[in-house]
Amino acid sequence: xxxxxxxxxxxxxxxxxxxxxxxxxxxxxxxxxxxxxxxxxxxxxxxxxxxxxxxxxxxxxxxxxxxxxxxxxxxxxxxxxxxxxxxxxxxxxxxxxxxxxxxxxxxxxxxxxxxxxxxxxxxxxxxxxxxxxxxxxxxxxxxxxxxxxxxxxxxxxxxxxxxxxxxxxxxxxxxxxxx
Length: 179
Fold this sequence. Notes:
This protein is an alpha+beta fold.
């Protein structure tokens, strides 16, 4: 599958089979996540892989939109303790978001289903997820990605809308050059 096909195929999957995701596939997801760009190469991302059924259930209880029964979850977290400069801590969410998108595209390419459940910037959710995952002070959960084998299929798509694209300045419509 080529890169664009993987991107278009990536969809939020909310129905999963009971089949556990193999460790080698989880590792491939993590490798893809860590291939993401990072501001000043700080790589503030940390990943908590959750497989334990009781802990998955606890996550489902605290995530308002994460009630799905996936066999695994990966929480992408930012380690603010790793920041060497004050300005770099302002980029952890972007870095971790790029890692998350890589993870989601890789899941699709590997035949897995995944859904991104947001946590940050809601302090109440951050605290609840941090408690379930036993995160140390200074490590903040950006999200929880539920992962498993899909029990539903969605068609590939793009949500491209040229009306949302401007040329040179906001308000000047983007017009594709004719060949």
